[in-house]
Amino acid sequence: DSGVTQTPKHLITATGQRVTLRCSPRSGDLSVYWYQQSLDQGLQFLIQYYNGEERAKGNILERFSAQQFPDLHSELNLSSLELGDSALYFCASQTAQLGSTDTQYFGPGTRLTVL
Amino acid sequence: AQKITQTQPGMFVQEKEAVTLDCTYDTSDPSYGLFWYKQPSSGEMIFLIYQGSYDQQNATEGRYSLNFQKARKSANLVISASQLGDSAMYFCAMRDGNTPLVFGKGTRLSVIA
């Protein structure tokens, strides 16, 4: 158990809908990262938050947004869903914002299926 | 730009044997970290081992060791005494400076009884 929690574990929805994925980082970790894992694109970084502020953006679509709350949990909002958004979405946390030595610990993921 | 290359899409190993999973990387930053993660069929990403670019010794964690060859820019994962539970996807990843992790495409390891 990494200490990072994600809910829900599975999500099935229809095209055009909006969903919210939730992540709670490990106790003491201030940084939260969101990743998307799909069969064709592999593991891709979406967005990072540190202590409530957005710090880095990757290949995140405009239909997607995220935020980190004062209690440090984070939510990833996906809207106007398309079939191609079906993927495994991971949240990862690490203690600090900076430093290449910091290990990221991953949550169990949310498997999103868009029908 | 960072790049991670895992050239082995799939590997087979006999139970109790050792196996090496290859990973090469490319970065112009002298300070970087290399990571290996395991993803079983259940889907979670499990951190295995870390190697820093300035570390003098190869990292080890139980049955996992990292064969770090800086000049060759390689960071191969060695699993000793393979077990059936080691069957999974293995991802090599790297970060330098403040960047997020960049992952390779992974290697699927199958352990045969």
Characterize the structure shown.
- The complex is a heterodimer of chains A (115) and B (113).
- Chain A has 115 residues and is an all-beta fold.
- Helix content of chain A is 0%, strand content 52%.
- The model of chain A has no long low-confidence stretch (mean pLDDT 93).
- With 113 residues, chain B is an all-beta fold.
- The mean pLDDT of chain B is 94.
- In chain B, the strands form three sheets. In chain B, strands 2, 5, 6, 10, 11 and 12 form a six-stranded mixed beta sheet that branches.
- In chain B, strand 8 and strand 9 (74-79) form a beta hairpin.
- Chain B has strands at 3-5, 10-14, 19-21, 24-26, 32-39, 46-52, 60-61, 64-69, 74-79, 88-96, 102-103, 107-112.
- Chain A binds chain B through residues 2, 33, 35, 42-43, 45, 48, 55-56, 58, 88, 90, 92, 97-98, 100-109, 111, and chain B through 29, 31-33, 35, 37, 43-47, 50, 52-53, 91, 95-103, 105-106.
Provide keyphrases for this structure.
heterodimer; A: 115 residues; mainly beta; seven-stranded mixed sheet; four-stranded antiparallel sheet; globular; B: 113 residues; six-stranded mixed sheet; 0% helix
How would you briefly describe this protein structure?
The complex is a heterodimer of chains A (115) and B (113). By secondary structure, chain A is mainly beta. Chain A has no helices and eleven strands.
